[in-house]
Design brief:
alpha/beta, single chain, 35 helices, 45% helix
């Protein structure tokens, strides 16, 4: 394109951007409309491009021809039409949030806006001229420079200002640790409180949030991250601070809003800045106006005695957890030392001569060889053995003395239950007290607000902002929307919590990090990540243009790293992984645990409360739906056989069997989702859709949601296009998201033969777990001779014990089942491994028992000496447990 042929204004725009990133958008097709009587010109679709000079020519380069719908057009088109913004946007969304090809985009445009189209929209023969007096959508193309949306413009403005902050100023915020600065802010420990049940990992996460400038929480699906976030917010608010919870996912904010608002439903202490579904759009100035217009009234007073009692309990729990951890470590060292001495004695009994080769065959041989290397056997054997023996004996003595000093720790499970009950009362009083204004406070704030209103456009003072946060201490904000709605002051909030941080890019988060003294980054890199808007080349060029070194900047890469990735890779940042999965049935957790989480998850759901369809078992199910024998003519990624099978299943569940649980239908491909939606709308009455909370969506659209029953349509088969297979191979995390949405049953409808072929590894493993019988664990295996004796004694009474029963990531010594549905966990304990030095049961057993009871099991434990003294009496207790 020759420069001389371009309008002067366009050439001027090029000159202004010459030193910056050379990006533009190709707009196609073009809509001409009217606003307030004046013509408007806006692109319907946008294609990312870059530009460069070549002599007297402007060269436009398009690396990817995906067409992304223009959000401004969507907003304008939805006004005065049956479409909602979200519904119209979803029509044009590609797989994983990407754009659409030219032909697919034009086809969907014909479906969504047929009445506005003028002529044919082909993208092959463009109009050379448009008249602004004509209204409609035309097959024309234009070049558009980015000017920044109201969202990104605010973030860019904030980043420009932060760039000039002094290092001392940044070091007082949660942004400091990310940039390698020593934190100079408040690190006063606030003992964590909870307004719902918390496990020890959640408690540690809450403790870190209120002590460290930056901390990370890894929250796999169903592990209670929302509960932990609520506890973090409650702890900070009770300490007099202000909290911002930020996410790009409005559903994540809904969960926090619901749980905290229920505690004090009549106190206006919470602000939701943006929620399109409820047409909420609030900034700090709006809240000032609301505060000064509210009637004054005496603010409720908090009960200082209850606050003090709560603080004492919270500190006792932290000390108990520290004691438990120390005791566990000391006991582990003690057991290892004792076992080592016993193993050395076994080596001596082998009568190995000096420098003799240690047998290396079998497990025992390898253990002997390792010990020989560790303690120098085979060299100066007697001297080395004697020295190491004395060292081990000193370690044993030291640990026993330390354990005696620690004594028996308090029970943190009991303390957590006491804190929950008391914290709800104290928090209700606290937020009511903070939300109310006295008449004097209202008048003072009103005067400040009058000045702000008179001088329109003036920046709100920090004093007014802090006053507002004192009365409205909890803010729920979208990450990108925060700069527009909250003034930029360093450390304005005591704590900012980023939820779903794996879906948040780095640059968008920096302005909020600067607004907070401390930050918690909550995410899961095993689920779907954000879609970068920046390519690797642009990323690298921007870093080079700003003089950043090549080494050490990779973790800041906007094109590859999320906020979660950056925070987790920052040195000296504490990280807690939540491991107890409270959502799903055992087999569902077993699949995602094995495939995606390295076996770190534990099943903790109330399995008795799962809504399992009639005739089904909880967990994974598979219906074999053979793929077509020949390639279909449809260019879309759709599978009519799977659509028919799923529609039949949902109809049977809702119409015939009256299933009362909630249902979700998921596919990786939008075209399959459209086919499923159409089929189900025909098969299922509208009232049953609403009653079952039935939703059909893509994997990407379902992240963050859950249903009792998930029906999954992978869509792929032997004759499908290779691009569809590549799509699933490229991002294996989609399988994790799809299956982990289910509480009771994840039911897959797919070609079993194709799944077993191994083309898609995660689908192959899912098919194996859903269709192939697994061997019973622990058959004929006992940890001790006493377990063997108990097994035969239980069998003699006809109680049918199941040894080494596998559940919730644990092995029960024996599982027994009563006729009325009673489940009993029977443990046979030796005092050496289950008793502390004061003769009390080790606290680890109490935590384990608490988990089993929460899963609906009774727990009965016997010491070995109890069984030795009265076996029959112990078995009588077991029978009584099973018959109650």
């Amino acid at each position: 394109m020759q420069l001389d042929h371009l309008p002067d204004s366009f050439r001027e725009a090029i000159a202004r951007r010459d030193a910056n990133e050379r990006a533009l958008a190709v707009g196609w097709p073009i809509e001409i409309g009217r606003r307030a009587g004046a013509p408007t010109v806006r692109p319907v679709g946008l294609i990312a491009a870059t530009w460069d000079y070549k002599a007297d020519f402007l060269e436009i380069r398009i690396e990817n021809d995906d067409v992304i719908v223009n959000p401004d057009w969507v907003k304008a088109a939805a006004q005065g039409s049956p479409w909602s913004n979200a519904g119209l946007s979803e029509v044009f969304a590609g797989q994983g949030g990407t754009g659409l090809g030219r032909d697919r985009f034009s086809a969907r445009l014909r479906e969504a806006a047929a009445r506005s189209i003028r002529g044919r929209i082909t993208g092959r023969s463009f109009a050379s001229k448009l008249e602004t007096s004509d209204v409609g959508i035309f097959d024309a193309m234009g070049l558009f420079f980015p000017v920044g949306s109201t969202f990104t413009a605010g973030a860019v403005r904030d980043l420009d200002e932060i760039a000039y902050w002094e290092p001392e100023k940044i070091s007082r915020t949660s942004l400091g640790p990310l940039l390698g600065m020593s934190y100079s802010g408040d690190e006063t420990e606030r003992p964590p409180i909870n307004v719902g049940p918390l496990n020890h990992e959640q408690i540690r996460a809450v403790s870190n949030a209120n002590l460290k400038a930056l901390s990370v929480v890894t929250g796999p699906p169903g592990t209670g991250k929302s509960q932990a976030i609520v506890a973090m917010a409650a702890t900070t608010i009770l300490g007099g601070g202000a909290v911002a919870v930020a996410s790009k996912n409005h559903q994540a904010l809904d969960a926090v809003e619901q749980r905290l608002s229920e505690i004090a439903p009549n106190a206006r202490f919470l602000v939701r800045t943006l929620d399109p579904a409820r047409e909420i759009d609030v900034n700090l100035t709006t809240v000032v106006s609301e505060l000064v217009s509210e009637p004054s009234g005496p603010a409720g007073a908090a009960d200082l005695v209850l606050e003090s009692e709560l603080s004492i309990l919270a500190r006792q729990r932290l000390a108990a957890l520290d004691n438990v951890e120390t005791t566990r470590n000391l006991n582990t060292e003690l057991a290892d030392a004792i076992e080592t001495i016993e193993a050395r004695r076994a080596i001596a009994e082998q009568n190995l001569p000096n420098n003799a080769a240690v047998p290396a065959s079998g497990l025992w041989g390898r253990v002997l060889k390792w010990l020989a290397q560790l303690f120098g056997f085979g060299g100066s054997a007697e001297g080395g053995m004697e020295t190491s023996r004395l060292g081990l004996e000193r370690l044993i003595k030291k640990n026993r003395e330390r354990l005696k000093e620690l004594g028996s720790p308090e029970d943190p499970v009991k303390l957590t239950e006491e804190i929950e009950s008391l914290a709800k009362t104290v928090l209700r009083q606290t937020v009511a007290h903070r939300a109310g204004l006295t008449e004097e406070q209202r008048i003072a704030l009103s005067n400040e607000y009058a000045d702000l209103s008179l001088h329109e456009g003036a920046t709100m003072s920090r004093e007014i902002a802090e006053t507002v946060l004192q009365h409205r201490p909890l803010w729920l904000a979208s990450v990108l929307g925060a700069p527009k709605r909250l003034p930029l002051y360093e450390g304005l909030f005591d704590l900012v919590i980023f939820d779903e941080a794996s879906q948040c890019d780095i640059a968008s988060a920096l302005p909020l990090l600067a607004r907070a003294k401390r930050a918690v980054v909550v995410g899961d890199d095993r689920q779907l990540a954000f879609i970068p808007q920046l390519g690797a080349k642009q990323d690298r060029n921007l870093m080079m243009a700003n003089g950043l070194p090549e080494k050490g900047t990779g973790r800041f890469s906007q094109s590859a790293k999320s906020l979660f990735d950056l925070a987790r890779s920052t040195p000296n940042v504490p990280t807690v992984m939540l491991r107890d999965q409270y959502r799903s049935a055992e087999d569902i957790v077993g699949y995602i645990n094995t495939q995606f989480y390295g076996g770190k998850l534990r099943v903790s759901a109330n399995l008795d409360g799962l809504k399992v369809p009639q005739g089904r078992k909880p967990g994974l199910a598979w219906t074999d739906v053979p793929g077509p024998a020949v390639s279909g003519h449809n260019a879309q990624n759709a599978n009519e056989a799977e659509v028919a099978a799923i529609c039949k299943e949902v109809g049977d569940l809702l119409v015939t069997k009256g299933y009362t649980g909630s249902i979700g239908v998921i596919s990786p491909f939008r075209s399959q989702v459209q086919a499923l939606t159409k089929g189900l709308q025909t098969a299922i009455p509208q009232e049953l859709w609403e009653k079952s909370d039935l939703r059909v969506g893509t994997v990407d659209g379902f992240q963050g949601q859950e249903r009792d029953l998930i029906l999954f349509s992978p869509t792929v088969h032997r004759k499908i296009r290779s691009s569809a297979v590549t799509f699933l191979q490229r991002d294996w995390r989609r399988m994790n998201v799809a299956i982990s949405r289910a509480r009771a049953v994840a039911h897959v409808f797919s070609d079993l033969g194709y799944a077993r072929s191994g083309r898609i590894k995660q689908l192959q493993s899912l098919a194996a777990r859903a269709t192939e019988p697994r061997p019973l664990t622990g058959e004929g295996i006992f940890d001790s001779e006493w377990e063997r004796l108990v097994f035969h004694a239980l069998n003699a009474r006809g109680l049918n014990p199941q040894p080494q029963y596998d559940i919730a990531g644990r092995r029960l010594d024996f599982a027994l089942f009563g006729s009325s549905g009673i489940k009993l966990d029977l443990e046979v304990d030796g005092r050496r491994w289950h008793q502390d030095l004061d003769g009390n049961r080790k606290l680890d057993d109490h935590w384990r028992d608490h988990q089993m009871r929460s899963l609906g099991w009774k727990v009965r434990r016997f010491w070995v000496d109890e069984l030795k003294q009265d076996m029959e009496g112990c078995l009588d207790l077991v029978e009584r447990d099973l018959n109650e």
